[in-house]
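Per reviewer request, we include the raw input and output of the structure prediction for the construct analysed in the revised manuscript.
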Amino acid sequence: MCPVTEMGHVAVRDPVYDPLAPAVIADPYPYYRRLREANPVYWHAVLDSWVVTGYRQCRQVLGDTTNFGSDFRRVGMDIPAARLSVQSLDPPEHTDIRHLLVDALHERSPAAMRHEVSAIARSAISSLSARAGTVDLVSEFARPVALRTICAYLGMDEPEGSRFEAWSNAIVRSMDAGLDPDRAEPGDRARAALSAMIADQLRTADERGFVGQARQAARRRDVPAAILANSLRAVLHAGYESVSRLLGGVLARLVADPDLLAAADTPSLVDALVDETIRLDGPVQADARVCVADRLVGEQPVQRGEVLVLFLAAANRDPEVFAAPDTVDLTRARGTHLAFGRGAHACLGAALATLQLREVLTGLRTAGVVFTPAGAVTYEPTATLRGVARLPVSTGSQP
């Protein structure tokens, strides 16, 4: 559930990397490899920023909030109020809002949440198994499961479908506003509208739920109401979009290679499959930072005010860290990838996203569900947050 940067810095056209080209949308990873081989800290002239694809360099920047900021105001940039949240603030402002969200996340016991996540996954899998004909695993499984789970986790009613979907889509598209500036304003309007919905929930939320606990903690820590609403909006949105896209990406892999799930025949191997598919199919392709003080990134000098686009999806396939990086290896050491970030801005919802994927994979194995491709897999035309648009299958059961 990891939250995506709200800065929207993505490359436009370049001899090595053109992010919205159809071939790149279909499979961006060979292009990330070309970027890394050209230079792991590559100057992208059209984007006017450094594109960072090396694991070591990405991890360096993620771990150093003193010299590399998520808050672009630190170098004098003007940021719309709707974008100021736990995602975009840096310490010390970031510290109080992150701590109160972490405290609220612990309001329910892990066992209780595991039970609820498992129940949601099992129910959806049961409905899926009973379906005849072609099923779209994105719109009819991944997205409703993710929305139901994040709303249960936050103790919120599920938002009204078409309106929420429109807001969510506008926010995702605006993450690529560097490619299409016309996407920026609709995205900010959607952020403001979704924050207003969250603010209404804050006024009426049960004190025992996540939102109510966050409200109480905000009073104790003197966190501004607008920052709290924006941050809860970011958690809700990431819990829906990032997780549904993670589930969709992993399901696409399993449809193409059903032996992967069959090989995960112990809880330990399921955990390994979860970790590897998050590394390979995590939806967050890139995150942005601004250089606050002149520094070396790896061996590359970077100056104050210059932007760095950290390609986490490229770092997760860096052969210096991951042998045979494009393959699933269930013996690989776990917990190394950067899909959930690192440092102060590491993903708040990493544990929940991991739990959801584990429960879905376990539920599919237990139910013996078999997927047969029933059409072409298509991808959303977005660069920063990758996602399967349509994954048509027919379902059956193991004999």
